[in-house]
Amino acid sequence: MSEPRKAAAPDPHDFLAVDGTLSPEERDIRDTVRDFAARELVPRVADWFDAGTIPDPRGLAKSFGDLGVFGMHLEGYGCAGAGAVAYGLACRELEAADSGLRSFVSVQGSLAMAAIHKFGSEKQKADWLPRMAAGEAIGCFGLTEPDSGSDPGSMRTRARRDGSNWVLDGTKMWITNGSIADVAVVWAATDDGIRGFLVPAGTPGFTANVVHRKLSLRASITAELVLEGVRLPADALLPGSRGLGSPLSCLNEARYGIVWGAAGAARACYEAARDYALTREQFGSPIAAFQLTQRKLADMLVDVNQSALTALQIGRLKDRGDCHRDQVSFGKFANVAAAQRVARTARSVHGANGITLEYPVLRHMLNLETVATYEGTEEIHALSLGQAVTGISAFR
Fold this sequence. Notes:
The structure is a single chain. By secondary structure, the protein is an alpha+beta fold. It has helices spanning 24-51, 57-67, 84-97, 99-119, 122-133, 245-279, 291-320, 325-350, 361-371, 378-390, and strands at residues 75-76, 79-80, 139-142, 158-162, 165-176, 183-190, 193-200, 206-210, 222-232, 281-282, 285-286. The strands form four sheets. The chain has a four-stranded antiparallel sheet, covered by helices on one side. Strands 3-6-7 form a three-stranded mixed sheet, covered by helices on one side. A hairpin with a 2-residue loop joins strand 1 (75-76) and strand 2 (79-80). The longest helix has 35 residues, at 245-279. The termini are far apart.
């Protein structure tokens, strides 16, 4: 009887060999985005975070377009038509650099472009999607309002008919890329329910005001959109949009990217803490030799690998067409909470050094406070999961 093969020691960077199950194409996409992030994003993002902006957003958009990540999961119109896992891997590698940078890509591809792709006319798709995929045009997604976050159905933005035109009035808040967008997808209540409209930048009555003094997602551009008597032609309406389900379906696509992105942020914090613990010496030994530090590393290791497994399983379900929105809620709820735990623990491993931008951990920790809130707060996803397993809605 032959001796059983001895298993290789686990890789500290992929302890459960999650990435070992990827296809060659998926590994190529992972490596391409990871290399881009290491070369173009990681060396600069701390400065961008410190400055509270992206100095050259159009240049970055063009770089993302050249990389092929804008709308990469969409079919046609210059989009790559990649699978869900491949798109998720791109989100993971981008958020390992910074949540704000992954958000730039998600808002462009999974919100603005996806809305046009799902609900737009053929002319709207042909006019906007190829340029957006190439990073030559930037889009934003106007759903959230100052008084309407978790309950978007209570929005106050209104669109009324005036002859053959539409006239929009209202305010949207916390809009990523809002002040740099060439086109805004704006959701408004009409006599026929909630509908989507394409509002080009420069339309009279439409202004975008940058939100300053943020303490989270600082390497990102956030704006308030104000619409005062904005007059649009009839063909500005997204003809396929019908009711609140239309924008919510786009949010689910962006939320799926967060499932993977949070896993990337967690991995980056764990790896930073492991590297630091192996090189930082106290009492004559690296702090990695101390029991309390090893326990922290073990806790982080479990969260990081369980997050990776969760993201991959949801991605595989999505690629098969078997992914329910509640499963995406599960992933967002679980992975963001895990990433927050990892970031806090990693910050403690770094000690006083952990509060500086010389290390990524507090930057990720602060970003994750926003990630826990947008695309559905932690509480909303908890209630979604509660309804899924009991059949009882606790929302109202």
